[in-house]
Amino acid sequence: MKKIKILYTALDDLEAGKEFYNFQSPGIGEYFLDTLISEIDSLTLYAGIHPIKHNFYQMLSKRFPYAIYYDFIDEEVLVFRVLDCRENPKMRDKKLY
To answer: What is the number of structural domains in the chain?
Structure first.
C-alpha cells in the first residue's frame, strides 16, 4: 500500500474548485471535495496505471472535469496539481511547469 502526500499546490487547487462549486450551488463544493479526495485515495492501489502527460501521471476525475497530476517514488504518491480540464490548455500547461 502506498502513502499519499498532497502538496500545497494541489490543496490550493482543491480549495479553489470547492469555492467555485459552492458559488454555483451551496453544498456542491463539499461534494466536489469529498469526491476528489476519494479519487486521490484510490491512488494507494492504482498509482502508476494512468497515462503520463507533461511528465506527470494524469488521472481524470469520474464526476468532475478535473485532472489529478501525480508522480510516485517507491511507496509514496505525490499529488502535485488538481486542475480544471475546462481551463485554457495553455494556462493549464503553465501551471504544471
So the answer is: 1
pTM value is 0.93
Pairing of strands 56-60, 66-73: antiparallel
Q: Please give the residue range of the domain that contains residue 56.
A: 3-95
CATH code for the domain in which residue 23 is found: 3.30.2310.20
| Mean pLDDT to the nearest integer, 32-36 | 97
Calpha distance 54→52 (Å, rounded) = 7
Q: What is the length of the chain?
A: 97
- In degrees and rounded to multiples of 5, residue 27 shows phi and psi of 100, -25
Each residue of 50-93: pLDDT tens digit? Answer: 999 989 999 999 999 999 999 988 889 999 999 999 988 888 88
The answer for 64, left when phi > 0, alpha when psi is -120 to 50, beta otherwise, is: beta
| C-alpha dihedral sign at 40, 18, 67, 95 | negative
d(CA 79, CA 57): 9
